[in-house]
Amino acid sequence: MNSTFQPSLLNDPFGDPGLLVERENSSDVFLFDLGDLSGIPSKLLLKASHVFISHTHIDHFIGFDRLLRVSFGQGKTIHLFGPENITANVAGKLAGFTWNLVELYDESLTIAVTEVHEDRLIKTQFRAIDKFQPSEEQSLPFQDGLLVDEKDFTVRTAILEHRVPCLGYALEEKPKAHIDKEQLESLDAVAGPWLNELKSAALENKADDFLLHAPTIKNDTRNLKEIPFGLLKNKLVTVSAGYKIVYVTDTLFSEANNKRIVGLANGADLFFCESPFIAEETDRARERRHLTTEQAGTLARTAGVKRLQIFHFSRRHVGHAQRFYREAESAFGQPILPSKSLFSKKKRPQRSQDVCS
Question: What pLDDT, in 10s, does the model give residues 221-248?
């Protein structure tokens, strides 16, 4: 399926977890988690419009400072979403700097934070011009996991358990209508802006007797003809589902979590799922509130996803990545491609203690 989404892991599968999604014909970039961002070009970070944080353990949030540094003074708004306490986490980060010179900048920066609770969303603004003091806090209803509802895409979330609330995310294109222009001639119709109205009618499921005004030409005579939507729909329109990407990390394999993960990932075209531990480390995974390779594959198979990409491998197993893929592939029942990042450095620098070991 063709998609406007172009996803890549932020790091190799043994590095800090995270996902970057570019969009064709758009200046927007979506970031899922803010771990090690050292390999991401600043020109891409400057495009970040939406940031979706699973939770704020250090390997998922240490990159906030770099994003802040790159974005400051650019006159933009970053929409940042996260679990309970994300507002306090962002406020704490911002409070770590001195902002007495912000009035010297012509362009400000706004960070619009949305904190996800089971029954509500709490929204708070942090503006550079106000020295990043929190303002405009409001509480909104939260239904069906819906966080973002734009013209051509949505983002939904599920609250998972990792000893702290941890969010999984589903980014999905809205359905698309396609016009078979070769069939226009059979209706004597002429291509033009009216086809956009036809697409909208198809996506809105208009009644078959809804009339559209279509320009026609017959025997060199031009007319504007009323044609029922039902006829046009059957002759000209095909509606296809949008591409769906799901990102799940740092969570426990349990009945409650599994139900939410499968619901979020149901039918996904591409499922990014953590698997820090190999199959024989089930007890360790349970203790650390993480998934094994086998559990990731099982969740993907149960959710009926088309492609699975695993990541966030424990560095206890550096040099044995193929075992991760084999085990997950066996449980999934379909081939799994090795997880790569467009931004991985050729030589991995010395890292601190693996958070999930």
Answer: 888 888 899 998 898 998 888 999 999 9
The 10s digit of each residue's pLDDT in 86-103 is 999 999 999 999 998 888
Distance of alpha carbon 313 from alpha carbon 299, whole angstroms: 17
Question: Residue 2's Cα: distance from chain center in Å?
Answer: 17
Q: pTM (2 decimals)?
A: 0.90
SS (H, E, C) the chain: CCCCEEEEECCCCCCCCCEEEEECCCCCEEEECCCCCCCCCHHHHCCEEEEECCCCCHHHHCCHHHHHHHHCCCCEEEEEEEECCHHHHHHHHHHCCCCCCHHHCCCCEEEEEEEECCCEEEEEEEEHHHCCCEEEEEEEECCCCEEEECCCEEEEEEEEECCCEEEEEEEEECCEEEECHHHHHHHCECCCCHHHHHHHHHHCCCCCCCEEEEEEEECCEEEEEEEEHHHHHHHHEEEECCCEEEEECCCCCCHHHHHHHHHHHCCCCEEEEECCECHHHHHHHHHHCCCEHHHHHHHHHHHCCCCEEEECCCHHHCCCHHHHHHHHHHHHCCCCCCCCCCCCCCCCCCCCCCCCC
